[in-house]
Every structure is written in structure tokens, then in C-alpha cells.
Amino acid sequence: MASRAKSNRVILNVGGDRHEVLWRTLNRLPHSRLGRLGHAVTHEAISQICDDYSLEDNEYFFDRHPQSFGCVLNMYRTGHLHTVEDICILAYHSDLVYWGIDERHMDPCCLSRYYQKKEHVEDEMRKVNEIFLQQMDTEYSGDDRCAVYRKKLWDILEKPQTSMAARVRLLILLKNFTFTGFGF
Question: Where in this chain does the record put each BTB domain (predicted)?
């Protein structure tokens, strides 16, 4: 910890990309992941914030894809958060959550585009999920004579909320697991 206290600078290694930054820059967002790193003094506290570190080199490693980190670091330096065009918007959102940066800090020039893209992708994912579920229902309810029985069996095995038989099956399974777990 002594070498860290002597240095004004820190090296952040994000997915192999190294960034040198001043500690006081990271303190601008004290509740974010990097802001908390500046105040972490024990091995346990540091290990909860980053994936690996070297106190001798004053370097902290984060096993993350580095693509959006430039925007995150720029937020610390300038106070302005912008989007990255060539990254999935949900991956970018996930990165913001990981680094502890609230998306509401985004500059107005990017904010509406960010929310539009995010809503569009979430809607598309919902549609794909609905189509998948419909295909599963169709697959297990086909046109042959066994389709009705196949669908009922599927519901009993996979959807305990659909019938009394499915609930009874679930209770029997839970009872067996409980007895097995306690060694009865």
C-alpha cells in the first residue's frame, strides 16, 4: 500500500489495454467502481473491485472487454459520457452498470439515441423470445394424433402451474429431493 500512496498516478489494465490516470481523476466519481478503488486499502476490498492487481507496479487489472472503457474513463476526465457506436447497446449498458456509471449522466447529444437503441433492442429480444415460445408450443402441439398427449406431457414435465397433475409431480419431486438431501 505504501507504493500506492507515493504515486499520484495509477495504471488501469482493462482487458489488456493499459490506461494511466491520476488518482484524483478517479475520485471525481467516488461511488463508482474506480472511485471506490482509490479508497480501498485492504486486499479483500481491492479484490472485490478488480480481478487482479500489483501494488509494486501500481497496476489494477479488470478482465473486461476494453471497447467501451475509453468512454467510461473520459467520463472521469471530462465529466461527459458519450456512447460507443460500434458496440451492442446492451453490452455498453452492462459495462456502465459494471463500472458504476449511471446512464443518466450521458450527454444530451447521445442520450436520446442511447435510449432509442436500447428500447429497440429490448423490443426485438422480446419478439424473438415470443416467436421461440410459439415455435415450442407448435412443435409440441403439431397436427398428428399424439400432439394433444405430447403437449399435456410437456406441460406436466415443464410447466407446473398448468395443471393439478403437474403440481402433484412437482410436490413428489420436492419430497424426494428433501428426503434424499436429509439422508432419509
Answer: 8-117
